[in-house]
Structures are given as C-alpha cells and as structure tokens.
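Kindly draft a polypeptide, keeping tokens residue-aligned:

***
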Amino acid sequence: GMPTIVARPQKFALSFTCGSLTFMASFGILTGPVEHLKSMLSADRLYFTFIYVGSMMMTLYFTFTIGGASGYLLVMSASVAQLLALMYYLISFLPGGAAGFQYVLQAMWIMLKPIILTCARVQAMCIAKCVSLWFRGSSSAS
C-alpha cells in the first residue's frame, strides 16, 4: 500500500508526535524525570527545548485545524522541524556527541548495507520487468 505520510500526512504527524513524546519520556525514565527536565531547561539546551516543544505544538495544531494542500505542507514542515530537533537532542545526549552518533550510524550502515543493496537490486529487476511488459503490451496494441 501507499505510505501513510503520502496518503494521510495528518495521521503520520499525529503518530510521529506521539512517538516523539514517548522517546522523550524514555530519556526521562532513564535519567529520572526531574533531572531530565532540569537538563532540558538548562541554559545551553533551552533553545532546543523551545524549538522541540514548539514544533510538536505546531504539528498538532496544523494536524487538527488545517486541511488540504496547505495543511499538507504545514504539517510536513512542522514534522521536519520536529525531526531535526529530535536528532539534535539525540546527538547532544549520546555519549561522545556527534562523534558517537557517527560511529553508531557507520556501524548500522555496515550491518544494513548488504540488505539495502539486495533490496535495491530486486527493486531494479522488478521495475525492469514491469517496463518491458508495459512496452511489449503497448507495441502489440499498435
């Protein structure tokens, strides 16, 4: 089927925001709710907290109030801002910061590269087969 983000961006945004809140709550459980809140409200992270909470509120507001094409663009823009703020949060809280995050991504790439390449080859074969069948069908119809 079609991905939810294309067919129903508001449904995606609502699910993404709930997942984002769950992600933040998990950090709160790991470090303790009071400590987590203090770290989010510290001077060096206050800017992030404002952007993150604001992007979540914007996402929810746009999801529930604005529809149509403009609603699609606004919901997706707010979701992208939320994702970027969440990525910054993840990088800033991981041991090693950006270097630690890059190490994790490299390890994931090494593990997933064979799977991704195999999927890409299978997809290319399927597309080639579909295109050849389409051209064969259109040339016999002429």
The longest helix spans residues 97-141. Residues 120 and 126 are 10 Å apart (CA to CA). The mean pLDDT is 84. Helices lie at 4-7, 9-31, 33-40, 46-65, 68-93, 97-141.
